[in-house]
Amino acid sequence: MALAAIAFSVTACARECAPTVTDGWVRMPPMSMPMLAGFGRIGNPCTAPLVIVGASSPSFAEVSLHETRIVDGVSRMRAVPELRIAPDDSATLKPGGLHLMLMQPHAPLKPGSRVVVEFALKDGGVLRGEFEVRKPGG
Ligand SMILES: [Cu+2]
User: Fold this and answer.
1) Separation of 2 CA from ligand 1 center, angstroms?
2) Which residues have beta carbons under 5 A from ligand 1 (an ion)?
3) Could you give the CA distance from residue 63 to residue 55 in angstroms, rounded to a whole number?
4) Phi and psi (nearest 5°) for 77?
5) Domain map of the chain by residue range?
6) DSSP labels, 26-84
7) What is the residue-level pLDDT of the chain in tens, covering all 138 positions?
8) What is the CA(80)–ligand 1 centre distance, in A?
9) 125, burial (CB in 10 Å: exposed 0-12, middle 13-18, buried 19+)
10) What CATH class has 18-134?
């Protein structure tokens, strides 16, 4: 009886537990540039850590995770090869911090349109997120 109850709760948890990408947006540069930054929030409501090992998008030639840090008063970006999000935690991608670097859009981006980014997970899964294209300051 007890065993059945445990099995049921594990199944229910596995079904309800899905990482989320919310508030995704892409910042349009003031002029046409081959490089854009993407921001948003990745939530991990699961009981296991969420480990992102890569990103890609059908709208861009290349996507990577970056982090901006101030080193000796100078803003520098570095690649983040692995982003680990603890259970019940989230990661916020925002200007001046963690962000997506979206290289070489296949077509000109329009404000208000949406692009899809797929995050590759260490366990082999894929986490899809939608990102709205916004004008700078808009
Ligand atoms: Cu960057």
Assistant:
1) 51
2) 66, 77, 101
3) 6
4) -110, 140
5) 18-134
6) EEPPSS--SEEEEEEEEEE-SSS-EEEEEEE-TTEEEEEEEEEEEETTEEEEEE-S-EE
7) 445 444 444 444 454 689 999 999 999 887 777 899 999 999 999 999 999 999 999 999 999 999 999 889 998 999 999 999 999 999 999 999 999 999 999 998 999 999 999 999 999 999 999 999 998 765
8) 10
9) exposed
10) mainly beta
Is the entire prediction scored with pTM above 0.90?
A: no
Ligand 1 centroid to residue 21 C-alpha, Å = 19
Q: 55 CA distance to ligand 1 centroid (A)?
A: 13
